[in-house]
Amino acid sequence: MRIIKDSTPAGDGFRMPGEFERHQGCIMIFPERSDSWQYGGYAARKAFVQVAESIARSEKVTVCASASQYDNARALLPDSVRVVEMSSNDAWARDYGPTFVKNDQGELRGIDWGFNAWGGLYDGLYFPWDKDDQMARKLCDLLDKDVYDKRDFILEGGAVHVDGEGTCMVTESCLLSKGRNPDMTRQETEEVLKKYLNVSKILWLPCGIYNDETNGHVDNICAFVKPGEVVLAWTDDKSDAQYGMSMACAEYLEKTADAKGRKIRVHKLPLPRPVTVTAQECQGLDACREKPARTPGERLAASYVNFYIANESIVMPGFGDPADEGAREILQGLFPDREVIQIYSRDILIGGGNIHCITQQIPE
Ligand code: KQY
User: Fold this and answer.
1) Were both Cys, which of 23, 61, 206, 346 would link to 56 (CB 3.0–4.6 Å)?
2) Could you say which architecture CATH assigns to the domain 3-363?
3) What is the tens place of the pLDDT at every residue in 61-112?
């Protein structure tokens, strides 16, 4: 594996494909951290296994597990899933797995962004994060892919979505947050994204989902279903703090064109009712940096937008909410050639993310 420091993907003719383009596989990490996953992570691991099984029906899934969880992962996951021992601080493959870029000859390379647990010592979520930060490079080594070293720029994979045709979508609340790249201007941030993802237009949504501890990752509020079309997490409840946030994103999208000059078509994806943590769930979490990891009644950033686009399916969250079925039908209508698989994901959500956050596609 070559670590590339003296050129950029755009300069070398590589671009990040849209998630809806064909994949050769998917990377996941087995959860076990006791301040992220309640009651030692038993229920979270079951949910991760369901996600891995669903994706593995149409692409090769690789699950990274710690030495102590290796046997368990191997026992719980189907034979078709590859399990490799790899250490990490937690289980967010989207955020610190490599971002893959591809050239016209089909060659793949990874990008290794800097990772600081969603805000470092300013407003990050745990310390240390050194093993997470090594994962992109270790995975590129495992997959025999050269990797661009961009560790001097803090970015998580869940903070960007691309359409594969020159447009990248981010949120201001995340990319311009003080815990990421505080010395960079918006213009300088744009330049990095353009050079590394090979895009020409950045869509700056103002914010993400209410109380999303990532400073509002775009992958929880808005996602491309194809070039020129997005789904946006939505509520009609004006008394909900999310109402103004989703409205601000809709108004921005309404007046903004993509890289190809297309007006963006917005499909609203209604949110479930607010999902809050119970006292019993909080009791099952260890403290994080000497403080309770969660407090009873805390609202979690539940959203159906946090789905994964697999080769032949959409693997989406379910919350046991009356809105689950309607959300499933909307996504089925938008992805008629893929089977929509809904997985009850409360045990993933308690960790702070959902199905998109725990998966990272490897383009074909
Ligand atoms: O991408 C994500 N949503 C991950 C959030 C991690 C939270 C750590 N508890």
Assistant:
1) 61
2) 5-stranded Propeller (3.75)
3) 999 999 999 999 999 999 999 999 999 999 999 999 999 999 999 999 999 9
